[in-house]
Amino acid sequence: MLAWTMYISFLGVALLLLPAASKALARWVALLTAVAGLSCAVAGAVAFQPDGGIVTLMDVSWIPALGIRFHLAADGISVTLVLLTGLAAVAGVLFSWNVEHRVKEFFAFYLALIGGVYGVFLSADAFLLFAFYEIAIIPKYFLIAIWGSTRKEYGAMKLALYSFVGSGLVLIGLIAAFVVSGAKSFGLVALAQFAYPASFQQWAFPLVFVGFGILAGLWPFHTWAPTGHVAAPTAASMLLAGVVMKLGAYGCLRVAMTLFPQGAREWAWVFGLLAVIGIVTGALAALAQRDFKFVIGYSSVSHMGFVLLGLMTLNATGLNGAVLQMFSHGVIAGLLFAVVGRMVYDRTHTRELPALAGLELNKALPFAAVTFVLAGFAAAGLPGFSGFVAELQVLLGAWRAFPWFVIVSGIGIVIGVAYTLRVMQQAFYGRRLLTPAPSPSDGEERNGTQLEPISLPEKIGAGLLLACTIAIGLYPRVLMDLFEPSVEALAKVWTR
Amino acid sequence: MNYGELFKQVVPETILVAAAFVVLLVDLAWMRLKPTSTRRTVAAMLGGLGCAAAFAWLLEVQAAGSFCEGILVVDPLTQMLKQVILILTVFTAVISAEADFTEHVGEFFALLLLATVAMMFLVSSEDLLMIFLSLEMTSLCLYVMTAFNKQNPQSAEAALKYFLFGGTAAAVMLFGLSLIYGLAHSTNLRAIAAALGGQRLEPLFYLALVMTVAGLGFKVAAVPFHLWAPDAYQGAPTPAAAFIASGSKVASFFVLGKLMLLGLSGTGGSGAWRAFAPGWVPLLAMLAVLSMVLGNLAAIVQKSVRRLLAYSAIAHAGYALTGLLAGQPEAMASLLYYVITYGLAVLGAFAVVGVVEGRAGDDGFAALAGLSRRAPVLALCLLVFILSLAGIPPLAGFFGKFYVFTAAVKSDPKNLGLLWLVIVAIAMSAVSLYYYLQVLKQVYVAEIPAGTNPLQVSRATQLAVGALALAVVALGCWPGALVEKLLGVIRQAGL
């Protein structure tokens, strides 16, 4: 069932490539494809037996000369992330309902990206995983370069090149690992079973980890993320922050850390430190932004720092936190970008916080304001939302591995609350507290009632994502039962 | 010698020579007064028919054997290479039918077929003299084809450059080959390998090696013998440029591989990092690095699509050479997989560029602006070709690169000796994504310039380009079949 998520997405691309489809039809095809993908993901998750094992979905010989197999498989972590992808895909289509420019192509690239992401999460062969990982690069470029805003061509190219350089590093490590392990198979399990010499792991681990880490927003290779997120159209920033950054983190976990456990132990403090620096500098940068979307862009870097810190704890608690944070941040970041990009920017055509302060958005767009407040609290890690459970576990795990890092990350959390409150107040409740800045269009103050009301697809999309973050926040077991056994099975590698 | 048996082996070549004469004759006798577009169509059909007949013969008649001490060698590997060359020729013929640059239709198509014949002889020889002769015959046909656009002074300039460089390279190469003959007392590759293998090599051998590599390096456009390529690719008529980039590349790389892996098999030396040993491996490794670095960096600043393709071709020569340095049989298999898929992709790219250029009048980036809305199918195919060249899955170019890199690293599993070369290659292919995306940006992102209409494309061109794109996708999604086939025939050929 799970494998169909990926097939259906590519089928959707093929359908959209057919000529003579109207805009409305293209939207519905995209929505149906995304919903079908989500249904498959949910059905697969329900049928999944969380016992720490790996379930093979499909396994056929593909390129026998190099021992490459078309091997799709899932464990609890993959299932969780496939679910996240399904959610983000549906929400993304709902928030792109107002795209009018080259609709068919937009959704074709969009679904191609989704298909690639599903593929990465379900691959059990290193070559296959790498292929899907690269498939996801090109659609991102076009989504941003064609439908984006603010320096879109620069942002798109930067993102594409960063991703490609990252995958180049990964490729070097993979080929070397394949050859060193005896050049028999590219299967991830087979590769992981080989005991690589310590001297080899010492350079192969950082190579592959940084390669994937670039996409996960690893400081100091994170600079593509804010520019890319800001330049991207709403759906693409939702996917970028929500899912694509998780691809990187997933690769770090599944490939770099699993193949080279000894290297991971040796390098854990280095990358843990980089993750903490990412948490703090991301939050500080978010605090200093004037552009609403940049705030969210930098906050993504900060929150992904928690994922990487959780991975580098190398213990089950921290890893559980990291996987949960991947899901939680995927949902929350999607929501935040939806509010900024679709609900606010598409209506007001400005993202400058001082300009927004004069628009009384809490009155004009109450739904957007409420959604953003809830999402902001979730992102800031308030109890009752998924972000709290996840970050708490990461910090608990990190306390055992690097106590000092936890204290510094704590500062990051405080700054996180500060920038969330600041942006909330300026963007939605600015009137009473700030001198109103002139509105961007003509100096004449725009009346809030002129703004187009929040449409039904937006409400459904926001409701879907909000429900997820609250549900996971109140009862995290629902998701954790799914991936915890797999994480514990994995964590044995590093504690051995 | 049994002449009947010998003739049977060269029937495909004979068919093509006959087809070339028929094309000339028909064009001269009956088509003089017809419009050139009709003449081109008829000539392309006749040429295509000849290729199809030769192809059918190659498929049906299982010929094998070595004649006249290796002057003509026929085995499953050479038969397969000939089939590939024929396929590339047919596509070139279809592109030629679309390109309006000359009134001498019959002559152009006849030259195309004769160049194909020369390439077919080139791939099926294991004798230095015959290799040199067929290489020269190929080159002569290509020089003339390059000069064919008489209205365009660039065409003449390109041909003259191509010819002067080619002539010099051929002379140097002939000198090198004669030295090899002097050292080994034979022109047969297997005999040379037996004579040179295992003994201490004289300095004279290295001189001979460098000279030979210079000649072949010119043919495959490897740095520093690449200077002709940008001008030839830009100035030549589109079909000629496409054929130089595809068919001629495949044949030249194959013969380079054969010369090194078969004739000089014992004299490779080592290209492993900090363990260099003299021989052709470090020499070619150096050419590969230079080609990849210079080709990719120079491509960044190009403003003309054809020049960009030329520099990218130089870079691709570097990747292909990397494959050649791997251990056998992966060296030949990865090299051939790489150049075959590269040939298909670059032929398709030239076909699209040719159509666009025909309408716009020049091949600047601006000519491609908004192509995805003026000709969606053509643009999608161009996307496939360019992304395949960039090495993006699931296209053939991706597996080509992957196979080449894996094979090269695998050649020395203990020390990962050639990993340094693969790192350079991977770094440079990251650079290449930038300029490939610049082309695609014009096609997909840029707005349509005012006053341009949807592009009308003939059915034949659409079919040809679509078939090429499908082939690139299919070879990328199912590379296993071709790889197994290549490994099989290479084993049978005793390489």
Concise overview:
The complex is a heterodimer of chains A (496) and B (495). Chain A has 496 residues and is mainly alpha-helical.
Keywords:
A: mainly alpha, two-stranded antiparallel sheet, 21 helices, 76% helix, globular, B: 495 residues
Write the layout of secondary structure elements.
The complex is a heterodimer of chains A (496) and B (495).
Chain A: H1 2-17, H2 23-47, E1 55-63, E2 68-74, H3 76-95, H4 103-122, H5 126-135, H6 137-147, H7 152-180, H8 188-193, H9 198-215, H10 224-231, H11 234-259, H12 261-288, H13 292-312, H14 316-348, H15 353-357, H16 361-364, H17 366-380, H18 386-401, H19 403-428, H20 456-474, H21 477-495
Antiparallel strand pairs in A: 1-2
Helix pairs in contact in A: 1-2, 1-4, 2-3, 2-4, 3-4, 3-11, 3-14, 3-20, 3-21, 4-5, 4-6, 4-11, 5-7, 6-7, 7-9, 7-10, 9-11, 9-12, 10-11, 10-13, 11-13, 11-14, 12-13, 12-19, 13-14, 13-18, 13-19, 14-17, 14-18, 14-20, 14-21, 17-19, 17-20, 18-19, 18-20
Chain B: H1 3-9, H2 11-29, H3 36-60, E1 65-67, E2 72-74, H4 76-98, H5 105-123, H6 128-146, H7 153-184, H8 189-196, H9 203-220, H10 228-235, H11 238-245, H12 247-263, H13 280-300, H14 305-324, H15 330-360, H16 371-374, H17 376-390, H18 396-410, H19 419-445, H20 459-477, H21 479-492
Antiparallel strand pairs in B: 1-2
Helix pairs in contact in B: 2-3, 2-5, 3-4, 3-5, 4-5, 4-11, 4-12, 4-15, 4-20, 5-6, 5-12, 6-7, 7-8, 7-9, 7-10, 9-12, 9-13, 10-11, 10-14, 11-15, 12-15, 13-14, 13-19, 14-15, 14-18, 14-19, 15-17, 15-18, 15-20, 15-21, 17-19, 17-20, 18-20, 20-21
